[in-house]
Amino acid sequence: MPSLPDNQTLAPAADDAGLLAAAQCGDHAAFTVIIERHAKLVHGYLRARLTRSADAEDLGQEVFLRVYTAKAVPRGTMDLAMRPWLLGIARNVLREHVRATRRRRETAWTALCLDVEDLVGGGEPDGGVFDEVMGKLPRCLEALGPSARQAIDLYYQDDLRMREIAERFKRSEGAVKLLVHRARQAVRRCLESGQPVANDGGEDA
Amino acid sequence: MTSEQLRALIEQQAPADLTPEECAALREVVRTSPELLRDLAERIQIEEFLTQALGRPPISAERVLERLARRRAHTIGVRTRYGLLVCGVVVTALGALVVTRTWRAPGRAVEVARHAAE
Q1: Phi-psi region for residue A7, left (φ > 0), alpha (ψ -120 to 50) or beta?
Q2: From A154's CA, which of A19, A189, B48, B98 has a CA 20 to 30 Å away?
Q3: pTM score, two decimals?
Q4: ipTM of the predicted structure?
């Protein structure tokens, strides 16, 4: 394994290939930059396909552990090439998790998601899509009504269950599910059209 | 469950609230229903985008490296135990070989002593 000169660390602006090489030589700072750059991508991919946040955390660490110890690194591992590679590792980790977990209740959704990926082609998403969506999403979220925005934040940011959000809102669980569902639809329409959709997210539901 | 009921289910239920039976029904029908497949793919994608945008990934270099250290320690432990087991088997086999080669039955020893006396 090549080594860096003593006390040399790579600046955060370095490309992923350089950072990865440095990380594998023991540059802790380079590894931290790789994780900061790609953790949201990997965590989002895993969390959407796992029903327990603890599993998403565990498998997220496993993905980056495999990155750290990878012997074969794809050529030209610039940002856009790194993402499909990372998602490929994440997909393998998910498959192994489904095989290894006997608790069917916790893996039924994951197995379904993997089936869907296989059926729609299973190809790694274009790395550019992530940047595009992350660029549009803040505006789409801002267009939501206050209750809808709060419910979305509690669900996706704070990782609360619908039942817990309902308790906070002092509403029924069904009403909160509807609120989140309508907010999600509004965000999806906004992402598709590029225009924020005026939506109260079913505030009166 | 009909395809329409399943489509309503994936739109409104949180993934964590789906039962294994509902997931099994979705897995079966999704293979033959392009509409359900599209709805499910869109649902997973929007979940992914919202988590990527809003989620706080609980991943850090320290924790990944701690995990690596634990795994290496475990691997070394397993190898050590395996090595000790192999050594134990080899020593036992060698011991057994030495004993069978050098051990003489008591009757044979008496006979040898008698021959020597004569």
Answers
A1: left
A2: A189
A3: 0.79
A4: 0.84
